[in-house]
Amino acid sequence: xxxxxxxxxxxxxxxxxxxxxxxxxxxxxxxxxxxxxxxxxxxxxxxxxxxxxxxxxxxxxxxxxxxxxxxxxxxxxxxxxxxxxxxxxxxxxxxxxxxxxxxxxxxxxxxxxxxxxxxxxxxxxxxxxxxxxxxxxxxxxxxxxxxxxxxxxxxxxxxxxxxxxxxxxxxxxxxxxxxxxxxxxxxxxxxxxxxxxxxxxxxxxxxxxxxxxxxxxxxxxxxxxxxxxxxxxxxxxxxxxxxxxxxxxxxxxxxxxxxxxxxxxxxxxxxxxxxxxxxxxxxxxxxxxxxxxxxxxxxxxxxxxxxxxxxxxxxxxxxxxxxxxxxxxxxxxxxxxxxxxxxxxxxxxxxxxxxxxxxxxxxxxxxxxxxxxxxxxx
Length: 378
What we know:
The protein contains three helices and 22 strands. The strands form three sheets. The protein has an 18-stranded antiparallel beta barrel. Strands 6-7 form a two-stranded antiparallel sheet.
């Protein structure tokens, strides 16, 4: 079903581009070198975005990523005589977004493959139960997967809006490997996932009310088998000036979910603002990326983004994780970005995770390492 819809949309957009509109094209291409888990992996990554305007409120967008490392891997393996460089399975073409859009004064309708923007935290959004995670990308895991469905947004005269997402095909979290027995969620009317998001202004605060009906994207074990349990959830979000100092921004999001007969809570509360020459933030989070709603973990996160000068910027993240039964872990990452001209950047970064056995960051420690990226934007 996914392939059929994607092919149909691609044909529609291609025909429209030829007949009605000249596309606006942008993107970037670059080289990635990463050392992780005693392996050296490298690739050329090309990201392309085309936006098409057909007029009368109708437009379309195509965004795809081409990752090619086979030729590079063969070159390094032949010259360095090391199997660590041989990554012949890293060639892929992925459509990140592929949709058509109708936009009028009071309604917006989007159909195809696209991302949603639930949540107020700039780090992770545990209340975004609509999208799944991908843990199989060695260069940027975990990352959000786009949904395949229809989104309708109604805008009202008072500035509020109502978003409805209908997702006919279930997309689970993607892992490098899966257990032998995993329940399959078939695509039918009974298994359509629904997301509702109502936004409004309350004083100086953006306020959102959220609801989700669908399935947990993470796997849950039961008697040796693994399931994606049905979920019904309701919650909300806010962002606005910090109560004690309006120069800072406060934000929060939370969701109460009913899953497998149990109630579960996930959410974030945080504050950020300009401090010590850069943007800094502190947040407390319950429910980390890819975790089951039945066993969410907690973390305290400190993050910073700072421009050192006109060409150098630095980003860092420190997280302390802890489970309800008092297992602890930690995660630290940093990236230095050099941008000598507007359309070229060089980045060097590293990440390190550790923890007690079974804790979230301990399970992510196999991805510890460092990387180098060179990117050209066009």
